[in-house]
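Project standup — Tuesday

K.O.: blocked on the structure for the chain from last sprint. Re-posting the sequence here as requested.
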Amino acid sequence: MVDIEWCKKKGLRLIEPNSNLAEEYYRNAEETLKVTNLIKDSGSNMWLATQKYYTEYLAAYAILMRIGIKTEIHSCTIKIIELLQEKDIIDFNYTEILEEDKELRIDNQYYLKNRPVDFDSNKLAQLLLKIRHILDTITEEKIDEIRNLI
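H.V.: unblocked you, prediction finished:
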């Protein structure tokens, strides 16, 4: 089982599940994808990496809000996504995507490495559609199961 004990010590907490807030985060992910499409040909690997990662991250956080999980630490959010994969709520390797793009963002934004960004708008849109499906189909029983684990 995924170890989230350290996240609990760093502020991970259960809140009331909130479909409205989940929708806001999802809409922000969609908006961020639109902005990413606008800057994709700008030549800025820093901003492209940042926007790509935040598209993915905001969509992940939408799931957390739907379940009622609050964490302001990106590594903890990613650990919860790993737990959701383990419990078959997410059926693709979202953790790997988030980890890789988080590191790319950090390298380009903070360490100015200017690493190239593999950006495929259609692929990212498909990821958002998978998240949309999860938001629309997750059951109260699954939500309770995850909340009980935390």
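K.O.: great, moving the ticket to review. Helices lie at 5-9, 19-39, 45-67, 74-86, 94-109, 121-137, 140-149. The mean pLDDT is 97.
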